[in-house]
């Protein structure tokens, strides 16, 4: 009887492991991945400044504040519009294609198809909203929007007060 109980317990635990690893609902899994990857930090206007106090209905619509560096200026895309215009396969291909900094493209390339599909499902569930982000600006061209300078700066010298 003890062997039977162990077999049943192993079957129950084994069957529940996939559920523990990821929610069965791809939208919930996508919401979770977006949160832990901090996609809102760049792709949601005002998110970082407000400590995340942007309603979900307004999230992931891109931002017109750019990131400037040697590559020119890049802008966080409106992910909701992107997902609304792409198939799941097109979404995965684009996510793995790479692009301009400071987007963490290697992280997207490392995601499984299931992860990217879940993010896609979440974005599709949110639905299209907002406007497209500005086009990237080539190096040396005038920058028509506010932007963060994403270039390391030399250390500052600390002057100590002496008496």
Description:
There is one protein chain. The protein has 163 residues and is mainly alpha-helical. It has seven helices and three strands; from the N terminus they run H-H-H-E-E-H-H-H-H-E. It has helices at residues 2-21, 26-36, 40-43, 79-84, 88-97, 105-110, 113-126; strands at 66-69, 72-74, 147-149. It has a three-stranded mixed beta sheet with strand order 2-1-3, with no helix packed on it. A hairpin with a 2-residue loop joins strand 1 and strand 2. Helix 2 crosses helix 7 and helix 5 packs across helix 7. The chain is globular and about 65 Å long. It starts with a helix and ends in a 14-residue tail after the last strand. The model is unreliable at 3-20 (pLDDT under 50).
């Amino acid at each position: 009887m003890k062997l039977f109980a162990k077999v049943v317990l192993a079957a129950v635990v084994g069957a529940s492991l996939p559920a523990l690893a990821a929610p069965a609902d791809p939208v919930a899994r996508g919401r979770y991945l977006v949160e832990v990857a901090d996609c809102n930090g760049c792709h949601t206007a005002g998110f970082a400044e407000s400590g995340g106090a942007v309603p979900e209905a307004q999230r992931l619509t891109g931002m017109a504040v750019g990131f400037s560096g040697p590559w020119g200026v890049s802008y966080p895309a409106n992910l909701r519009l992107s997902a609304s215009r792409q198939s799941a396969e097109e979404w995965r291909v684009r996510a793995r294609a790479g692009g301009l900094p400071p987007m963490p493209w290697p992280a997207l390339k490392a995601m499984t198809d299931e992860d990217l599909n879940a993010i896609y499902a979440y974005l599709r569930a949110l639905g299209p909203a907002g406007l497209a982000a500005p086009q990237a600006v080539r190096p040396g061209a005038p920058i028509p929007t506010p932007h963060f300078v994403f270039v390391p700066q030399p250390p500052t010298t600390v002057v100590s007060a002496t008496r």
